[in-house]
């Protein structure tokens, strides 16, 4: 497999079509889903020449978590739909690659088991973060937080773009509403009753809940899904430690901008005080370089990990991460950049608008 696109095609060939559509799909007309990738394609890279350099160091430290590459595994639900080993395979591959994995609250494996798998992938420890939808039942939300802490998660990623579930027409068409028998969201098991609770996406969640969470845990808090620069400023005032600039891969509000289009504004709004991670449409090492040049501290990938997992379990996820790592390394070399800190906004230009006449070409 030469690139992530080939993984996508191969994954579709092996997945149940309804599950392939669940992974691939977006909300509504899928405008934002397409926009994420198109926006990367509209950015051009501008290399510098004759600058020497050598082996690229791709390591980053994010909120105290050390990673071998600036590419995280964004949280995605239901990995056992892609492969019987599910999140365990993903965690081992992430750990072996030194990539931070953000375990989804909607995982088909408990966060404790995911953490144990990550340790087998990298015995000196592999950074694991936990994604949380704040539940209106705060007692249960606190149970989830303690489980993540006990599992050794190093940060909480609080998804705030989901006051309601996105409208996924592919799932409605396919009648995909529930997990198959035998699979469930293990993290949602309620120790008070032994039952598995449904995930509540509630419009009643507010900044008050972020403050509550801030008081409830000492883990770093990353807000996932802030898109408005004013909300980035509000997040700072609420003591948030990082932002994951995300439109949920085009699966929540359709019609919102591509994340990389918003990146410069969000980076400006946080004034360097907290890291901004970006996800949505990252498919190439060149995309990673573009996002980092525009000020992202790192990027996340969602669907490509599911494709790798579907194609070949742990090995497939490992190959997806390795392809991105290699491509990023090669991109930096061709850009004449000696390491991640060398990437600057000057390395990126917008493509001319369609039909535009280049300056000096008018007659
Ligand atoms: C199948 C699928 C399931 C997802 N599940 C979650 C989830 O449980 N929690 C969450 O915060 N985001 C979830 N996301 C959004 C991802 O974290 C991420 O924002 C998005 O996939 C990034 O875009 P990309 O797929 O283009 O890389 C999901 C995305 C997909 C495609
Ligand atoms: C209840 C699971 C939510 C998964 C999710 O966030 C998505 O499919 O985008």
Automatic annotation (TrEMBL):
Binding site for FMN: 75-77, 104, 131, 159, 224, 246, 279-283, 302-303
Active site: 248
Cell division is among the record's keywords: no
The keyword Flavoprotein is annotated on this UniProt entry: yes
Cofactors named for this entry: FMN
Listed name of the protein: Alpha-hydroxy-acid oxidizing protein
Organism: Streptomyces hoynatensis
One GO MF term: oxidoreductase activity
GO cellular component, one term: cytoplasm
Keywords: Flavoprotein, FMN, Oxidoreductase
Domain of life (superkingdom): Bacteria
Annotated signal peptide: none
Pfam families: FMN_dh
Family note: Belongs to the FMN-dependent alpha-hydroxy acid dehydrogenase family.
Residue ranges occupied by any FMN hydroxy acid dehydrogenase domain in the UniProt entry: 1-353
Binding site residues for glyoxylate: 22, 133, 248, 251
